[in-house]
Automatic annotation (TrEMBL), chain A:
This is Xanthine dehydrogenase YagR molybdenum-binding subunit. Pfam families: Ald_Xan_dh_C, MoCoBD_1, MoCoBD_2. Keywords: Molybdenum, Oxidoreductase. It comes from the Bacteria. It comes from Klenkia brasiliensis. GO terms for molecular function: iron ion binding; oxidoreductase activity. Residues 22-126 form the Aldehyde oxidase/xanthine dehydrogenase a/b hammerhead domain. InterPro entries: Ald_Oxase/Xan_DH_a/b, Ald_Oxase/Xan_DH_a/b_sf, Ald_Oxase/xanthine_DH-like, AldOxase/xan_DH_MoCoBD1, AldOxase/xan_DH_MoCoBD2, AldOxase/xan_DH_Mopterin-bd_sf.
TrEMBL record, chain B:
The lineage of its organism: Bacteria, Bacillati, Actinomycetota, Actinomycetes, Geodermatophilales. Residues 1-229 form the FAD-binding PCMH-type domain. This is Xanthine dehydrogenase YagS FAD-binding subunit. InterPro entries: CO_DH_flav_C, CO_DH_flav_C_dom_sf, Diverse_Substr_Oxidored, FAD-bd_PCMH, FAD-bd_PCMH-like_sf, FAD-bd_PCMH_sub1, FAD-bd_PCMH_sub2, Mopterin_DH_FAD-bd. It comes from Klenkia brasiliensis. Transmembrane segments: none annotated. It comes from the Bacteria. Keywords: Oxidoreductase. GO terms for molecular function: FAD binding; oxidoreductase activity.
């Protein structure tokens, strides 16, 4: 008899790491398929609003090596897919950068050269790209993303605010931001008869299947998408974008295997972005810090061709107690590309505003901002009026304060100097929903051989290759090397995409269910001729009966150079309540990445729309700044002991997004504590010191 | 991207001869900027003449205590050269403030001076830009210009063929401008010397031209004259993140103090103009005067009085002022220590 150590909860290193470092595993663009591939390059509209009046592709077609030029006049017709991805189907242009033609050529150099030779004439109008609260066309969307209600109102908020002895009434702005995973979006496509074969960088092949089959009028059996290794995504690879359809069209027209990789610049117009927000926060409180009213009103943008309504204020619905409470969301339809999800869509900008306002309220009250949060801790979900499955925000705040050395903090702003540096500290809370989505898994067992565990899960850099192998090993009662995991393929059992921090909570239980099936039917004895079992998992009624969320607390130290306005963050502490941690190494990496992205949101990231011409002007990594290594100081990460069995037998919560939630607020609050000045529009760049 | 030929010569004169016959050709040094621009379709040479190994990659002594820097010396090597670090701290600091370790290994000294602006309208062939496409106008004056010029720019509105508010991106050039370096240039008619003061130009009515070099002229070396008091010098770069970003403002300064009096001073500013900006107004105001915060402030404000900021880069005026004042205070404190 052998005993097996549990893999879940250990610090096992990434099993895919060595092969990735050695370049032995192919990312989408690297798939070599035997037949000589051809290349697709995209002609984009510089006009943000208008129509194509004529296209002359003759000069491009005359370039040796050019196989085809597709335009709205000759491209294959697509089926009934969302308007934002109906590419090359009409002469109408709805955003700067919209594809108006593609060139297919024998080499990528020839394709890119020919792009410049396609002559396109436009009829154009001035674009409308500026979001403001004064617009007269703001409207309430039907509902928010993830099915949230557009507005929520409890009690008489205006009366409660009018009566409150202490109030805060402030407006925060967050900018357009872009997902910038290291791996650019890429698709390799080929038609094998009437079967479309794709190697693609995405967050879940099954996410793409309904759209791509509809677009090309094929059945699920006629589509096979493979995506085993993905170099980051953050939400930008969750949905079908135009490039996948362009690749399919180009492959169809030429009969060749085509490769299409977006340039970094194209990622700023073709794969979505985080909407800018303007958020008015009003808080009312008693002198002891007890909140009496919370109002959070959000204005954001969407595109002419899509309604993407980000759930910015939904975290405010559950964070703190208050008898009177209101959240609203209003949209403006602008001449911009369709927004999409970007790490913690909604929670990241929304909690920046709420947690900054809480800090401003603490200052008004002359109160420790940690204490203010503890004072308003709700014992049930304050809007849904259901119990928490687990809520350990208090533990995160108190343990974080301890680790960071918060005790004894002088709460006065602008009074600490170190040479020319002004020094301050800040705190903010974090939350992210816990949920699971329907998923299925299959286990093939043959006596004497490793188990083959198959599920169309995705590893977008999160560590899922490793964590799912750990979960499978424990469920099967074998060491990890007795498990062969297969993920990232539309022909594998259907699973939810990697998004909403639901990977582990959705995929892990499906694998466990399959292992349980194997155990129930065969005990410890695998039949000699082998057996295949399946398992599935999905949300139950716990989602209605309980309020389930991960929580966290961020602490940050900020230094501001009073001569130059430069901001540095020498240290951050994050403590999280995220249920059972499956892998301490990859979990820490997820939280570290989230906190770093929050730092980047606080200090650097902003996509600048040219208001006259309508394009994202700083569309490369030289000008769209993301925190560099030198910007990230000491990052201290911990989690509290927590197991939440309400949603899944692992006791886990999602961990991919909570790290970014609240971290920007902690830095903004520390900036105020250092300088005495509030910057209420991110990012806090050096120029803002001189306003 | 246009197809191009790749050529190598055996010596600098051979390279000059090759390019003289190729009006659309270009020299290839480290390629850290040119190759990017070719990929973007901004630069479209039909032939590249590789000069990376043709000119000297050595730093040599000059009789006046100065240094001759071969055009092919990598930025990383130059920053690490002990003589550079000891004699011209501002030069070593400027180099290390630029780009990243990998880029500094690859980039050459000559190429560094000839890099193009990072204005996003220049690097996007779908946008108007008088520098890239003369006569097409300027997208930046009405668009993204937060990091554009406040001194010496030409702003006649977005549709004028003269308008250009781009900045020169090099840190090294700012330090060399403060040091009155001279650039040795080889052309078809032989060698000539160009003062750093005359190398980069303001846009005037011809923003397409960054420098006064003629097509086919090749930088072979940079002479940095001896300046004993440059041992007390600094390069201070202010940028949007802690590393790997172009300057919002940079200050290259050296100061010679006689007790509490400024005997002599050199100041150049980066991130403010189409060329490294020598702060002669501030220098004149300081020379012979007291080394005090008040005097430094008055001199900096006098220099920046000529600024014409755009709506989104007005911060550069106070930022340049305070950064210059602090840099001079640090040098004078160092001198007194």
């Amino acid at each position: 008899m052998t005993t097996t150590e549990r893999a879940v909860g250990s610090d096992v290193r990434r099993i895919d790491g060595p092969d990735k470092v050695r370049g032995r595993v192919p990312y989408a663009y690297e798939h070599e398929l035997g037949a000589q591939s051809v290349f697709v390059a995209i002609v984009q509209s510089p006009v943000a609003r208008g129509r194509v009046t004529s296209i002359d592709a003759s000069a491009a077609e005359a370039v040796p090596g050019v196989l085809a030029v597709l335009t709205h006049e000759n491209a294959p017709r697509l089926g009934d897919v969302a308007e934002e991805i109906l590419v090359l189907q009409s002469p109408v242009v709805q955003y700067a950068g919209e594809p108006v033609a593609v060139v297919v050529a024998e080499t990528s150099e020839v394709a890119r050269d020919a792009v410049g030779r396609v002559r396109v004439d436009y009829e154009s109008a001035d674009p409308d790209v500026v979001l403001s609260v004064d617009r007269d066309d703001l409207y309430p969307p039907e509902q928010l993303m993830a099915g949230f209600e557009t507005d929520s109102v409890i009690g008489d908020v205006d009366a409660a605010l009018a009566e409150a002895p202490v109030t805060v009434d402030v407006v925060y702005e967050t900018p357009n931001q872009h997902n910038n995973p290291i791996e650019m979006h890429a698709t390799v496509a080929r038609w094998d008869g009437d079967v479309l074969r794709m190697w693609d960088a995405n967050q879940g092949p099954h996410n793409l299947v309904p759209v791509i089959t509809e677009a090309f009028g094929i059945t699920e059996d006629q589509l096979h998408i493979t995506s085993p290794y993905v170099g980051g995504a953050f939400g930008s690879k969750a949905y079908t974008h135009v490039h996948q359809l362009l690749a399919g069209m180009a492959a169809k027209v030429t009969g060749r295997t085509v490769k299409l990789e977006l340039t970094r610049q194209q990622m700023f117009s073709l794969v979505g972005h985080r909407t800018p927000t303007i958020q008015r926060l009003r808080l009312g409180a008693r002198p002891d810090g007890t909140l009496t009213a919370i109002s959070h009103e959000v204005v954001e943008h969407t595109s002419q061709n899509a309604e993407f309504a980000e759930q910015t204020a939904t975290a405010t619905r559950l964070m703190y107690s208050a008898p009177a409470r209101r959240t609203t969301h209003r949209l403006a339809k602008l001449d911009v590309p369709a927004p999409t999800i970007m790490r913690a869509p909604g929670e990241a900008p929304g909690m920046y505003a709420l947690e900054s306002a809480m800090d401003e309220l603490a200052a008004e009250l002359g109160m420790d901002p940690v204490e203010l949060r503890l004072r308003n801790e709700p014992d049930r979900d304050p809007e849904r009026d259901v119990p928490w499955s687990t809520r350990n925000l208090v533990a995160c705040l108190t343990q974080g304060a301890e680790r960071f050395g918060w005790a004894g903090r002088d709460h006065r702003p602008g009074v600490r100097e170190d040479g020319r540096w002004l020094v301050g500290t800040g705190v903010a809370a974090a939350t992210y929903p816990t949920r699971r989505r329907p998923s299925q898994a299959r286990i093939e067992a043959v006596a004497g051989k490793p188990y083959v565990v198959s599920i169309d899960a995705s590893d977008i850099g999160t560590g899922a290759w490793t964590t799912l192998t750990q979960i499978a090993a424990d469920a099967l009662g074998v060491p990890m090397d007795q498990v062969r995991l297969r993920i990232g393929d539309s022909r594998l059992p259907q699973a939810s995409g990697a998004g909403g921090s639901t990977g582990i909570t959705s995929w892990g239980p499906a694998i466990m269910a399959a292992a349980q099936e194997l155990h129930d039917r065969f005990g410890g004895q695998v039949p000699a001729d082998g057996v295949t079992v399946t398992g599935s998992s999905g949300p139950g009624d716990e989602a209605e009966q309980l309020s389930s969320h991960a929580f966290g607390a961020h602490f940050a130290e900020v230094r501001v150079d009073r001569d130059t306005g430069e901001v540095r963050v020498p240290r951050m502490t994050g403590v999280f309540a995220v249920g059972r941690v499956i892998n301490t190494v990859t979990a820490r990496s997820q939280l570290l990445g989230g906190m770093t992205m929050g730092l980047s949101m606080a200090l650097h990231e902003e996509s600048v729309l040219d208001e006259r011409r309508g394009h994202y002007a700083n569309h490369d990594l030289a000008e769209y700044h993301i925190a560099a290594n030198a910007d990230v100081g000491e990052v201290d990460i911990a989690w509290v002991d927590e197991v939440d069995d309400a949603h899944n037998p692992l006791g886990a919560k999602g961990i991919g997004e909570i790290g970014i939630v609240g971290s920007a607020a902690a830095i903004g609050n520390a900036y105020w504590h250092a300088t005495g000045r509030r910057v209420r529009d991110l990012p806090i760049t050096p120029d803002k010191w001189f306003r | 991207m246009r197809e191009f030929r790749y050529e190598k010569a055996t010596d600098p004169a051979g390279a000059v001869a090759l390019l003289a016959d190729a009006p659309e050709g270009a020299y290839l040094g480290g390629g850290t900027n040119l190759v990017d621009l070719m990929r973007l379709g901004v630069a479209t040479p039909d032939v590249l003449v590789d000069v990376r190994r043709l000119t000297s990659d050595q730093v040599e002594e000059l009789p006046d205590g100065g240094l001759r820097i071969g055009a092919a010396v990598p930025n990383a090597d130059l920053a690490a050269d002990l003589r550079v670090r000891q004699r011209y701290p501002l030069l070593a600091q400027a180099l290390l403030a630029g780009a990243s370790g990998q880029l500094r290994n690859r980039a050459t000294t000559g190429g560094n001076l000839l890099q193009r602006t990072r204005c996003t309208y220049f690097t996007d062939t779908t946008q108007p830009c008088n520098k890239r496409a003369p006569g097409s106008g300027c997208g930046a004056v009405t668009g993204l210009h937060r990091n554009h010029a406040v001194l010496g720019a030409t702003d006649e509105g977005p549709d004028s063929p003269h308008t250009c508010v781009a900045t020169h991106p090099s840190d090294l050039a700012v330090a060399l401008r403060a040091l009155d370096a001279e650039v040795r240039v080889l052309g078809r008619d032989g060698e000539r010397t160009v003062a750093m003061a005359d190398l980069h130009r303001l846009p005037g009515e011809d923003p397409a031209r960054d420098t006064t070099l003629a097509h086919g002229e090749l930088i072979t070396a940079i002479d940095v004259p001896g300046l004993p008091w440059a041992v007390r010098s600094r390069y201070r770069k202010v940028r949007d993140r802690a590393s790997y970003a172009f300057a919002l403002i940079s200050v290259a300064a050296a100061m010679d103090l006689d007790g509490s009096t400024v005997r002599d001073v050199r100041i150049a500013l980066g991130g403010v103009a189409h060329a490294p900006w020598r702060a002669t107004v501030a220098e004149d105001a300081l020379r012979g005067g007291p080394a005090t915060e008040e005097a430094f402030t008055a001199a900096a404000e006098a220099e920046l009085a000529a600024a014409h900021p755009l709506p989104d880069n007005a911060f550069k005026v106070p930022m340049a002022t305070s950064t210059l004042v602090r840099t001079l205070l640090q040098i004078s404190a160092e001198a007194r220590a």
